[in-house]
Q: What sequence folds into this?
């Protein structure tokens, strides 16, 4: 067991799987010699050599296209986009080829690529380095969207994503990259995909969240407990496909549901979760569900960033509004 | 492994020559410790170490030329390099530890279940102050509907079973009685005090009803709080100087309460005359509506029929009613002796929202004192 940050856990998972499976190829801008913009791939070049860790040109469309070729022909490419805001030139490859290769070829070819990218605000970076657009990918059939929220889940879920026979968009909350350390056993054990993680059990309110917002949600739950409100915190982890059954079971227990995400409100994944709760657990609801999210704006620059990211205070206020209903 | 590449030692110099190594492979060096003396086209300079650590390789010997940017020295490094560098942004770091001790893969075990209710049913229950756990669900899978909440309210309102067969709707004074008594039951906080008046020493043929009316007039002067009206909504009361005594009169049609206005101005004979007039007018249904209104206190002389004590019901907005039971001979302890005496049982109900127990008991004491005179 070693203590490591979230980004170190990503590094360890990549190193473990490259060692275990010679087909795993890591590529992206500055990932080899430089070790990646956040140093997620540090040391991999020395360990595995330039044939398995490739510095690519500044051309995201090409990165994704290369990955399609490798993945359909038997390799396991793990491609990094430096920031989520840089991913859009690759959308054509991702949506038109990666997501639908299995369907288009009637199962003859699969496309087991992992696209890693840091995402989210809170690191004082320009706006296209700060956004959370997981909903674009969740909306596309054929893609799996996975978001870790701790070093242990980053390690276990990245291993699972690389081992999955289909494409995964793996979104790493950059705000949590070096936030805190955790004991992680570098034993190559994957965590399950497509299942929520209940981080905290509670009786009064179900708080559904993922990624960096897990930090504020857990803090809000701790504060609320002091005022006698018991909050269950669920880390969705796999945004698509959604483990709605875990969320429904919790809401049927608590009767109240708040979804917290950093992405903008409109058409965010929170809307999908609330819709399913309304469809399937309406009669258990004691109060109207709420979303606590970023705003329908571009993520502001550094000075205003903290007003954009849902705060512990906003989460507590939402929970208290729900608690007004008996 | 970390590699230190030869930096540009001047302004755009392409290379430099190694003059002398100050360290050797295997040495552990500190940051800024001089590593090597390099000669450029312009000068001889000492190159300090940018890192602390163990040197694993020197990339060149004395007198060799090293290109700017080429490897100069390799350092040993840990597997996880403590490199805080990032091209863009500022990452938060902390001493905090992630604790995943209680993380559950999937959902937490259910420890309780909520009541399933339609949203409209929840809103209705909240408005009507109904506890949903008391409501019997009739919807699918134990779902409480809005109708279930209404049904629960109806049952609570009419706890008696519904009448079947031929029924008779109440009319007239009987209907008014039903409504007035229910209103009193909902609003008034009644307390009843009972006591006996000793009438042994009264001369025979005394007009007891007239004496009772006079006693009420005098007691009302002493404790005016009982000769009053009270409004429970605005919490206001009106205490009267005049005494308008409602007299409960039984009839086949129902209960009438004609009012003896300004009883304080009437002598015994006048009171008797008024009582007789009212009894007659009730029997022949000639009693005027105006004579049935405005009582400030009520007397119910039910003892003329039967019964000792009662818990008479106040008619709002009045705050007191005196019930008079049947007089009878009984054994009384007097001066240490048992004697046969004549007593009249009295029951005074007062509204405790408007009247104190002290006021009420003093009022009853005054009535008895006056009766026994």
A:
């Amino acid at each position: 067991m070693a203590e490591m940050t979230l980004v170190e856990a990503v590094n360890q998972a990549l190193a473990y799987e490259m060692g275990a499976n010679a087909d795993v190829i890591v590529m992206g801008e500055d990932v080899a010699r430089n070790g990646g913009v956040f140093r997620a791939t540090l040391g991999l070049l020395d360990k595995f050599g330039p044939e398995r860790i490739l510095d690519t040109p500044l051309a995201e469309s090409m990165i994704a296209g290369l990955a399609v070729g490798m993945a359909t022909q038997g390799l396991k490419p793990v491609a990094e986009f430096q920031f989520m805001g840089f991913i859009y030139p690759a959308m054509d490859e991702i949506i038109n080829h990666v997501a639908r290769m299995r369907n288009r070829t009637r199962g003859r070819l699969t496309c087991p690529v992992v696209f890693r990218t840091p995402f989210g605000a809170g690191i004082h970076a320009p706006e296209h380095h700060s956004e959370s657009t997981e909903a674009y990918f969740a909306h596309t059939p054929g893609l799996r969207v996975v978001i870790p929220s701790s070093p242990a889940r980053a390690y276990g879920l990245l291993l699972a994503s690389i081992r999955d026979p289909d494409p995964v968009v793996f979104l790493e909350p950059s705000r949590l990259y070096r936030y805190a350390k955790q004991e992680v056993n570098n034993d190559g054990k994957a965590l399950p995909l497509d299942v929520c993680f209940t981080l905290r059990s509670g009786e009064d309110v179900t708080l559904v969240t993922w990624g960096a917002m897990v930090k504020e949600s857990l803090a809000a739950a701790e504060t609320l407990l002091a005022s006698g409100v018991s909050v269950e915190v669920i880390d969705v982890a796999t945004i698509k496909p959604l483990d709605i059954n875990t969320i429904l079971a919790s809401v049927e227990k608590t009767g109240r549901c708040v979804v917290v995400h950093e992405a903008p409100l409109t058409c965010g994944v929170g809307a999908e979760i609330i819709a399913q709760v309304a469809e399937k657990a309406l009669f258990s609801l004691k109060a109207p569900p709420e979303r606590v999210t970023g705003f329908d704006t571009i993520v502001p620059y550094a000075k205003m960033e903290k007003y954009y990211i849902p705060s512990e205070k906003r989460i507590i206020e939402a929970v208290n509004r729900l608690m007004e209903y008996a | 492994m970390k590699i230190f590449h030869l930096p540009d030692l001047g302004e755009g110099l392409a290379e430099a020559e190694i003059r002398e190594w100050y360290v050797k492979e295997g040495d552990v060096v500190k940051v800024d410790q001089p590593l090597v003396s390099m000669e450029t086209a312009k000068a001889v300079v000492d190159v300090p170490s940018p890192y602390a650590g163990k040197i694993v390789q020197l990339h060149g010997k004395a007198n060799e030329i090293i290109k700017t940017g080429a490897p100069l020295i390799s350092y040993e490094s840990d597997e996880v390099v403590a490199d805080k560098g990032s091209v863009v942004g500022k990452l938060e770091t902390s001493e905090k530890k992630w604790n995943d001790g209680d993380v559950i893969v999937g959902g937490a075990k259910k420890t309780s279940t909520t009541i399933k209710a339609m949203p409209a049913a929840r809103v209705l229950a909240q408005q009507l102050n109904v506890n949903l756990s008391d409501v019997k669900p009739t919807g699918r899978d134990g779902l409480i509907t809005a109708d279930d909440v209404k049904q629960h309210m109806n049952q609570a309102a009419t706890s008696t079973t519904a009448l079947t067969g031929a029924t008779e709707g109440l009319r007239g004074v009987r209907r008014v009685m039903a409504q007035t008594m229910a209103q009193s039951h909902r609003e008034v906080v009644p307390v009843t005090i009972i006591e006996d008046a000793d009438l042994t020493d009264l001369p025979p043929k005394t007009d007891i009803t007239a004496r009772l009316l006079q006693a009420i007039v005098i007691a009302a002067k002493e404790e005016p709080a009982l000769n009053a009206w009270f409004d429970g909504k605005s919490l206001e009361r009106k205490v009267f100087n005049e005494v308008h005594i409602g007299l409960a009169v039984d009839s086949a049609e129902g209960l009438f309460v004609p009012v003896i206005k300004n009883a304080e101005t009437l002598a015994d004979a006048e009171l008797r005359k008024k009582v007789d007039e009212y009894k007659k007018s009730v029997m022949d249904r000639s009693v005027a509506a105006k004579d049935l209104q405005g009582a400030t206190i009520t007397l119910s002389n039910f003892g003329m029929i039967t019964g000792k004590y009662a818990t008479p019901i106040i008619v709002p907005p009045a705050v007191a009613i005196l019930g008079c039971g049947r007089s009878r001979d009984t054994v009384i302890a007097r001066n240490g002796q048992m004697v046969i005496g004549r007593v009249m049982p009295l029951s005074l109900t007062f509204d405790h929202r408007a009247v104190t127990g002290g006021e009420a008991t003093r009022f009853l004491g005054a009535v008895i004192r006056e009766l026994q005179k």
In short: Chain B has three domains: 2-75, 119-152, 172-372. DSSP finds six helices and 20 strands in chain B. The helical segments of chain B are 119-127, 146-157, 172-187, 208-222, 268-283, 357-372.
